[in-house]
Design brief:
Elements lengths: L1 H8 L4 H14 L4 H18 L3 H7 L20 H12 L3 H13 L1 H4 L4 H16 L2 H14 L8 H11 L3
Helix pairs in contact: 1-2, 1-3, 2-3, 3-4, 3-5, 4-5, 5-6, 5-8, 6-8, 8-9, 9-10
């Protein structure tokens, strides 16, 4: 239910997301993962959707102490708050902190497993380096992302957008 609320919040379905968040908070008041990961990610996703990167960063403060703590090898969302924080830093035009967050995901590949944020962190890292003006590192990070997505459908929107971004690098 937590990720359903986050998914609803990203495209701006705030009412539904807030109802699910309220239900989660009420049903699981003592659940560490719900309280420190799922519930903070919902307003962070809302902030990202509305272009308010700073608010997205602030919303994720409760996730700091536990961001590496949910290590269930069969199903883990441990680093999703880190990913959202990296995205929020990108929205706030803060390339250095964004790069740090995405690098944290890459450095903990064993925790991420085969979750999509493993590949997306490389794209986020490329964007963070480009934002910071480090074109060489940006090109390398884009290359890493393209290597992972080499079998993706060529017209996939995310891949197409990444290729356009890459082509614009000096």
């Amino acid at each position: 239910m937590g990720f359903a609320a986050i998914a609803l919040e990203l495209p701006g379905h705030t009412g539904q997301a807030q109802r699910l968040a309220g239900d989660l908070a009420k049903r699981f008041p003592r659940d560490t993962i719900v309280q420190s990961e799922y519930l903070p990610m919902i307003p962070s996703a809302a902030a990202l959707w509305s272009g308010k990167g700073e608010k997205g960063i602030e919303a994720l403060v409760p996730s700091f102490p536990n961001e590496l703590g949910q290590c269930n090898p069969s199903f883990t969302f441990s680093l999703y708050p880190v990913y959202l924080r990296g995205e929020a830093y990108l929205f706030a035009k803060q390339g250095g902190p964004a790069a740090s967050e995405f690098q944290k995901i890459i450095d903990h590949a064993g925790v991420v497993g085969n979750e999509p944020i493993g590949a997306l962190a490389r794209l986020g890292l490329a964007r963070a380096y480009a934002l910071s003006g480090d074109q060489a590192k940006a090109k390398t990070a884009y290359g890493d992302f393209f290597a992972i997505w080499k079998s993706a459908e060529p017209g996939a929107p995310l891949l197409a957008k990444a290729k356009v971004e890459f082509a614009k690098l000096p």
